[in-house]
Design a protein that fits this description.
single chain, 7 helices, 3 strands, mainly alpha, three-stranded antiparallel β-sheet, about 10% strand, about 150 residues
Length: about 150
């Protein structure tokens, strides 16, 4: 099949897969993976969140979030404590060791972004990002309208 006939979905999936592989290479050096980023990003600005809140913020299904949090707790990236407002629930927060890695995480992500965009002239990079964000918002709205 000629390249111009590849579906947009296939191209986006392929690009996302390659981007994730690049990011995992950079994050491995600091003991993380791309699977950790949605949780870390949500907890950077929120001192503690429930599993349900994390799943909603990250747009991840509950079972996947539960497995991710269990691995992160095992690896001492997050800590869990009882929710004072819900005796059956728990709140998750970043460990101090993970908080100390935030600068390194940001640098790794910035480096991956630079690498991923290196195939585009610098003058086109901001426009590409805006267009991608516009596409994502449009698809998100379409799905929300169908709910």
């Amino acid at each position: 099949m000629p390249n111009d006939e590849l579906s947009l979905g296939y191209l986006m999936h392929w690009g996302a897969r390659l981007l994730r592989r690049l990011a995992d290479r950079r994050l491995k050096a600091i003991g993380l993976s791309t699977a950790h980023l949605p949780v870390i990003n949500a907890l950077i600005d929120n001192p503690a969140l429930s599993q349900k809140a994390l799943a909603e913020i990250a747009s991840i299904e509950q079972p996947t979030m539960a497995a991710t949090l269990a691995r992160m707790e095992r690896d001492r990236l997050v800590e869990r404590r009882p929710d004072p407002d819900d005796k059956r629930g728990a709140l998750y927060s970043l460990t101090p060791a993970t908080r100390r890695k935030i600068g390194a995480i940001r640098r790794a992500v910035e480096e991956v972004n630079r690498e991923a965009l290196s195939g585009l002239p610098e003058t086109q990079r901001p426009q590409f990002r805006r267009q991608l964000e516009t596409m994502i918002r449009a698809m998100d709205r379409l799905l929300a309208d169908e709910s």
